[in-house]
Amino acid sequence: MSNPKTAPSSPKPVVRNGWVRKCDLDAWLDRYLPVPTQVISNEEYTPIPQTPQQRRLEKELIAQADAHARRLGTDRRSFLRTSCGMALAFATMNSVFGHFFRVDASELTEPFAVAENNPHVFIFDVQTHHVAMPSQAPHADQEFLRALLSLRGIARRMNPALKDRAPMIEDIYLENYIKEVFLDSETDIVALSALPGTSEERDVLTPDVLYKSRTWINDVTRSPRVVSHGYFSPDLGQQNLESMHAQMEKIKVDAWKGYTGVARAKGKEGWRLDDENVAYPALQLARKQGVKNICVHKGLPFPGDPNWWSPMDVPRAAKDFPELNFLVYHSGFRDLQASLPDAADGFKRNSHVPWVSDICAWKKKNPQVSNVYMEMGSTFALVVSASPMLAAHVLGMIIDAFGDDHLLWGTDSVWWGSPQWQIEAFRRLEMPAELTQRFGWKPLTADVKRKVFGLNAARVYGVDPAAKRNPMPADYVEKLRNWYKQSAAPTPSHTQYGWVRADSLAARA
Fold this sequence. Notes:
20 helices, 10 strands
């Protein structure tokens, strides 16, 4: 007879083309951990298999959490939802990867110690997303929506009323976005960022919806909490310029977001930011409009030719348009596979990180160019969970080349769940002495982290970090009732969305 305390109460995940949903795997194993223990994909890239260190971390974290929960008279999942549970996760990462995270022993048992040792700082997350509801985007690309839903799925076990309900599209709507970004994390301000699509009609998150979400959140909190992006696709030529005009007139965008590896024009695969005939008319219009911030997805290439996603078309555009700011989303990080072996030996043989090292080398040779900023969304989550050594190396390299005033905090939420674990990871991360000695990387001081967490983005977007900001009201779900059905939950889920390789099932058998 199975033991009800140990036997999985959720069904075994369904394998779809070699993938399983991460949230389904966690529900099956009753394993909701504060930090990821394997790389998660949104189907835009193929994740690497769980590494031996990640397997060890998962095993040790579960064992340690069980022991702490027993001592406190609670269950493992309840303990891991606490600030002490989060501290335990980073203490366990130290035991597996080496000492990279600052964790005081008292934080494992005393919540006040966690609060005392980790005071709040201003946090401006410049890369967040949700999707539009059917009434807002009736012709949205259903295949893309399914891919995005694969990143998310509210855990059925987190709310008894929902335990028999499969993950639904509502999980990536505005309601849950608000919960996980503003209620389950310390984030103060966000940029709602545009998503790529094959056409304006089929977009899953239109600029108009971004504007409505921005307006609604700022109105309901009676304070500035959200800035929003417009979407531009220069490959469309005059059609793109007309769209930029319309967006500016109707919704007053705060920045433009583009995906150089996604072309909307028929017969094209991508476009380059330094193409005088294609991209420069759009940049000239942005300059004329007074929209200074140009955000481009660079690195983490989608399927197809990866070269469209290289950041090396940014330098010339930045030089030719010194009045504009160019925000390199994902910091141009190409992939984990190429860098993990080098991180394993502390970069003693090879310190090159594809694409990140290249754009940093350009910046070192061109210190006079001051309008390029590096952004951390998804890249930090990937590297810090797979190899804290790689995370420290990438951050050290970027800060050395661009300065600690040109690195921006972003998390790519809600795809990774609540951004709080990433906030905790960066807050606690320390620069290893061996990287400082070998490469001259500077310590990640409290002052550096304050700049990265929010002060840099505040300067770029013209936001006052000291301005009074009201919290999200407790009845925000009621206020959203006329948008879509209520399905809120009051506690952090630690649900990690997206897909993992199907061989994850065999590894846990």
